[in-house]
Design brief:
Elements lengths: L8 E2 L15 E7 L2 H10 L7 E7 L17 E8 L10 H18 L4 E3 L3 E4 L2 E11 L2 E9 L15 H5 L5 H20 L4 H8 L7 E6 L2 E10 L5 E6 L2 E5 L3 E5 L1
Parallel strand pairs: 2-3
Antiparallel strand pairs: 1-2, 3-4, 4-8, 5-6, 6-7, 7-8, 9-10, 9-13, 10-11, 11-12
Helix pairs in contact: 2-4, 2-5
The structure holds biotin.
Biotin (BTN) binds next to helix 1, strand 4, strand 7 and strand 8.
Length: about 260
Amino acid sequence: MKAPLDSNFETTVDLKLSTQWLGKNLLFYRCLDSTNNFTLKLARKKAPHGTVVWAREQTAGRGRGNKTWYSPPGTGLYFSILLYPPVPLFTWPLLSLVTGVAAAKALENKTGEAMGLKWPNDIWGHGHKLGGILTESQGQAVVIGIGLNINHDFFSPEFCQATSLFLLTQKHFVLEEVLADLLLHLERAYDAFFQGDKSFLSEWRKRNILKNKKVTIRTGDKITTGWVSDIDDQGALILEKAKGKTYAIVSGEVLKIE
Ligand code: BTN
């Protein structure tokens, strides 16, 4: 048997995929710095639409806003999806919302637990953060990185906001099975979105954990406080600062929820 070109590359992953195109090109690594970094490099080499890069461990997993994403081996899912979206550029930011809804639905089916979504793109369960989505674009490509806490039975105090599927259900999950389910839900959601379906917006709104909450948000170097009424059809957060005065926040970080 030939030695693999890259000993970090594993081909023996047992993933029972029932997708048509998403993950048909699946690259699985024992350890990467960040699956998003790796997939952005693949995008430069024009890797196929629907390529999925999965790592058992990340040494420099990245979250939004230059945060690191805690990525110990075996307990979490860390993967990135490469798409060349066949839709206008101005709609690409909605792919994060589409991804969040599809991931929430897949996890709800798997666990029977209700999932929440926190703007812009966190997946929450029982009031704690279960996962996050980091979407980056490069030329004609979009890389969607998803990190989910699956079998963690403990988080140190610095991760006091975090939870895992195990902590929610007291059950252990096979990562391969969770990933295969996620990819099937994601493929259906992307196909619908690419065909102009907007139902993900109402699905997102149903799970909006910030609805009617008072929040403090950082946008650039500005800090704003107000009441969340909803998200608009472009995915911006609608914040009511004074009676009848609403603002659409396109990007930002929620610092405090009251
Ligand atoms: C966030 O909530 O801040 C987003 C977290 C995204 C983490 C995932 S893990 C897989 C992919 N690779 C990365 O380096 N980041 C994303």
